[in-house]
Amino acid sequence: MYTTSAWRQQTPRDWEHYVNKQVRVTAHGQQQHRGWLHTVDPVTASVVLVQLGESAGGCSVSVVMGHAVEQVEVVGEADEETAMRLSSLFRSEELEARGGE
Amino acid sequence: TSISASSKPGADPASLQTEQRARSMMRERFLRCLISMANKKIQFHMYEKVKVDATFGASDIDVLNFQVSDLQTPIGVQTEALIRCQDVISYSFDM
Q1: What residues in A contact B33, CB-CB < 8 Å?
Q2: What is the ipTM of this complex?
Q3: Where are the domains of chain A?
């Protein structure tokens, strides 16, 4: 578990530790977000969370702005398949959009 | 917003390199996520329990503003709008 009002002051290596972990993020106003942590923007400290669907395709994404992050807790680890899905998430889309070059 | 300085000056080059690698990997993932939001319906959760929907257009590089279309506000639809990122707590969308 990790508690801080200084989430934005962490170093990229601290944030990297959370990549591909299942986390619970508490944002301003006790809003809770749960999902796989895809990345943390090193500029704004915003957290990108992914809720993976059953099928290979569908998923929903929530992004908590860095300035509103109050707490980040790790609740699970990704297996290999989940980690693969997370890494390829926004890449395939982009390739399709550009005609699969 | 400013990019936080890398570890203290004089840190050994090897750890600086690891840090830069982590930074670029995470920034790339974030930017790809932003690209994939273009033309998608996004729900914004803002302060004072305001929730609004809009079609995402673009963000500036510092992520200070979002340009959106068809912003559905409680008092009507705004065809084009800029949302200040400071006013946003979180946003979500489906892929």
Answers
A1: 38-39, 48, 61, 63, 89-90
A2: 0.86
A3: 2-89
